Amino acid sequence: MLRECAAAGAGGAAAELQAQAQVQAQAQAEAEAVAVLQMLLADHVADPPEVDGVFGPRTRAAVQAVQLAAGLVGVDEADGIVGPRTRRALVASGLLYDAVETPAEVAGTPPPYRATVRWRLVGASVPAYLEVSDVVGELAAAFTAWAVPSGLTFVHVDESAVASADADIVIRFVDLSPANNFVFDGPGGCLVRARHDAISFDEMEQWELLRVGAPNTTPYGRASRHPHRRFLKGEEHYFALLPVALHAIGHCLGLGHSDASSDVMSPYYSRDRVALSAADVERMQALMSAVVSAERQGEAAEANEQEEAP
């Protein structure tokens, strides 16, 4: 009887120790997860929380700021809870690190464009599941959207043309995996990289064409759906080319990111953001107005120097 009691006591103590160890391991795992979250937040908010593994008020406020910036919730609905949509915005924002150079708007220098901007697509780089002509059409729609606000004329240069080598903006699909924050970051880690003379879309993503304005020729309407949708479900796996192209062209022309989720220049991807906002238009007009003013000042200064020359 005494032996049975002793054995029972020993078994109970062992079980208690095991339970305590599990609680400690869970607490450590949660602290590590919070620390990773805090490191991610440092890339998204101006006042990031300290990386201490504690989900305190500053960490919650930073999460709420990301939810608002990404347009996930309304002003009164940001709860600071890191659910699936918030997690995706943090890990796979897609457009957060896409500007390779300092935008002209930020640097105060005009983009090096004439009145007519020529662009070409490297057809050989287009993924096999996309038609090159359809991609050209999608890109043309994106350039057209920026034409009026910028006052520029955009012309597609076919690769077979001699002038294609002189294109102002060259567009291609490349592997952008090295630009991702994580080796296995999932879809949307880095969707595109842009500079004044080049746009590079990540060939590793699953791209789709919205074909806005085209006739409804597919079971899905105008959109050209990725073939993987037959067995790989979930919108998070697929990205529309048009909103990403609109955003990238804005960078080419000199615009930086916007804090408003409704703007094309927001660094958070949205499939439905396929038209410039009033703020996008105003910023581009202001930038181009500054460019024209700088050009006129330069011309006036040059004329004065010529007059003063003996």
From TrEMBL:
GO terms for biological process: collagen catabolic process; extracellular matrix organization; proteolysis. Binds 2 Zn(2+) ions per subunit. Can bind about 5 Ca(2+) ions per subunit. GO terms for cellular component: extracellular matrix. Keywords: Calcium, Hydrolase, Metal-binding, Metalloprotease, Protease, Zinc. Ca(2+) 3 binds at D185, G186. Ca(2+) 2 binds at D168. Zn(2+) binds at H247, H251, H257, M265. It comes from the Eukaryota. The keyword Metal-binding applies. Residues 115-290 form the Peptidase metallopeptidase domain. Its cofactor is Zn(2+); Ca(2+). GO terms for molecular function: metalloendopeptidase activity; zinc ion binding. This is Matrix metalloproteinase. It comes from Chrysochromulina tobinii.
